[in-house]
Design goal:
about 325 residues; Jelly Rolls; Phage tail protein beta-alpha-beta fold; 3 domains; 7-stranded mixed sheet; 10 helices; about 35% helix; FecR family protein; FecR; FecR_N; sigma factor antagonist activity
């Protein structure tokens, strides 16, 4: 990603994240006009996603993890926050640092530097904790242990994990994510991070809480998600499909191809892209072993009538 520092409306850029980065960079310049600020206010008001994206950029700018990661990752002189560079250099400095930081976030490097346990793409790992509970990390996952004194728990920095928690009513087990917490005494469940935190319960009871203080109690066979707006309603979940990855399988029933490919891409050593929106809406059903993701792509192409184009070992395109 590359952001231009010259005057250009951030609203004309592609993704919400790119726009948020550009707005943040522009607003660092002391020469920002009232018109710029009015346009920024209009952009924020246009969608809740805009405010969330901008807040994420602001948190990144203030993050100590970004400073540490950038200093280890690249020879980029970081602007010292206690020293103010000339106004005309603010936008360029902010763009360089934030764009670099966004790339680090996208690659998961910051999370991995903060983590106590990680898995690579396609890898799974089971860890037994000190209290006898166990956590299984799914593909491309990073988590930090959060057991201090009488407190039991972990923080999922990115990815997905399955928990088998040993009962202890005096010491609840707490899983933290960016969007909220999952609190349990003893049960089996999974937590998946992303735009929202997805929670599926296999057995027992869990309490999911959002950052605003709202919460919901889930029991076996139930699902919810936690986002900035709070905890969503409870829905039933097919545990056979939800936990299929524990057995090295990907199971889906009458789902859009785009959703299936997005899930498969988490296990694939490279990017899988669908170029046709109509193709992405094709409904597919399947039950596959995850050990050969390229074979699954070919099978899905046969089912949906798509062509597979391998542009490189790390880029596969599905075309209608």
């Amino acid at each position: 990603m590359f952001l231009h520092a010259e005057p250009k409306s951030p609203s004309t850029l592609g993704t919400t994240q790119d726009q948020a980065l550009a707005w943040f960079a522009r607003l660092q310049d002391s020469k920002t006009s009232q018109r710029d600020r009015a346009e920024f206010a209009d952009w924020l008001a246009a969608s809740p996603a805009h405010q969330a994206a901008y807040d994420k950029v602001a948190r990144l700018w203030q993050s100590q993890a970004l400073n540490v990661a950038l200093s280890q990752y690249a020879a980029i002189p970081l602007p010292q926050k206690q020293q103010k560079p000339p106004p005309q250099r603010w936008a360029a400095a902010a763009c360089i640092v934030l764009a670099s930081g966004w790339l680090l976030l996208g690659s998961g490097l910051i999370e991995r530097w903060q983590a106590d346990a990680v898995t690579a793409t396609g890898e799974q790992r089971r860890i037994v904790l000190a209290d006898g509970s166990a956590v299984t990390l799914n593909t491309d996952t990073a988590l930090a242990f959060n057991t201090i004194g009488e407190r039991r728990g972990v923080k999922i920095l990115s990815g997905e994990a399955y928990f088998e928690v040993q009962p202890d009513k005096t010491r609840p087990f707490i899983v933290e994510t960016e969007q909220g917490t999952v609190r349990v005494v003893g049960t089996r469940f999974s937590v998946k991070t992303g735009g929202a935190t997805q929670v599926d319960v296999e057995s027992g009871i869990v309490v999911c809480a959002g950052l605003r203080g709202d919460s919901r109690q889930l029991t076996a066979g139930q699902h919810t998600s936690i986002a900035g707006q709070g905890v969503a309603g409870i829905t039933p979940v097919d545990t056979g499909r939800a936990f299929a990855w524990l057995n090295g399988r990907l199971i889906f029933q009458d789902q859009p191809l785009a959703e299936v490919i997005a899930e498969l891409d988490r296990y694939h050593p490279g990017a899988i892209v669908i170029t046709d929106a109509k193709l992405g809406q094709t409904r597919v059903t399947g039950n596959y072993k995850l050990e050969d993701t390229a074979a699954i792509v070919r099978a899905l192409a046969d089912i949906s009538g798509a062509r597979v184009i391998n542009l490189s070992p790390y880029l596969t395109v599905l075309k209608g």
